[in-house]
Fold this protein.
Amino acid sequence: MRKITIVGAGQAGLQLGIGLLDKGYSVTAISNRTGEEIARGKVLSSQSMYDMALGHERELGLAFWDKDCPPIQGIHVKAGNAQIGTLLDFRARMSANGQSVDQRLKMPKWMDEFQRRGGNLVIGEVDMDELERLTESADLVLVATGKGELGKLFERDALRCTFDRPQRSIALTYVHGMVPRDDFNALNINLNPGVGELVHFPGLTHSGPCDIINIECVIGGPMDRWDAVKTPAEHLAMTKALIAEFFPGEAARFENIRLTDDNGILYGRVAPTVRHAIGVLPSGRKVLGMGDILVLNDPMTGQGSNNAAKGASMYLDAIVARGSAAFDDAWMDALAAQYWDYAQWSARFTNAMLLPPPPHVMQFLGSCAGNASLAATFADAFNDPKSLSTWFYDPEATLRLLDNAAVAA
């Protein structure tokens, strides 16, 4: 029986570990926190997930919240402000629903499921010396966390990084009491050019259905006021104040929101980063990274958990296909290239949303308001960012798409 050790027990690590257990592998997963500590702690992310990624969970019997979690049924995109007026306003349903389950619910349940299926769950910190010991006893060691010195094992890939610093300061807030939409549950993306974005969508947390708010503030801009916020009450007050000032058309829905709990808040800055996939230990032994440690996106388009789920499925197939052969450098390189072949498109999509759109993208987005097919095409890109690869970044290809859509209409 081949032995696999996974350092990190989040979306990528646990999904892969459970998949490997079902295939007859001996799997150890190492977490620096117990399930109870995760459940009692601060929210970990916003984790909006879409059909392709959710399909991988369902294949493994891990979709425990399908009946309880409010669906994300489509998108609603708005852009503009009082000075320049409305630039964009369109909505579209997705081909299949998404959902967002608080990882404080999800990860403890998955940790229990991992153990129920025969996995060895270890609680503890892993430093470089411990990682060396782990490589001595396992056929393959995967690192699915960038905590502490482990993240330094995986060098930044400067050629694949669009940015070298965070592009937004981000405030995450889980709330009850939002006024529902009158059409469908949406991933709402509101853009105030040069100021930042208000992104929100329905989710599920400890206390039931909720709404999850990401306020993305251009660093140094007028919404970048979060350093002075010290308490949960101040966090909620700042959220409401910024929405009222910079997204007044949305403010009525937020008037009576309240925190789901005092731990339902998070603030920070994310530097979008791509790293090399293979980490070389002092002994010369090698470990393979996965998930956010390899491709870390700003949460603007919600691709982090989706990448983790898709990558875990890809890794599962590659490990099983390897049979009894060694997990050597060539195999690691090939798997890393396969993952990047897909994940690059989520990075490119997210990074494009952080920058002022070029004229052909504005023309496309502007056309979505009057063309349901184009709007649906953009809505489904959140599920599969690679679907944009043949046209969204190419002005001529985009114009051909628009011409064809006009003819079809």
About this structure: The chain has eleven helices and 16 strands. Residues 167 and 354 are 7 Å apart (CA to CA). The two ends are 58 Å apart (CA to CA). The first helix runs from residue 11 to 22.
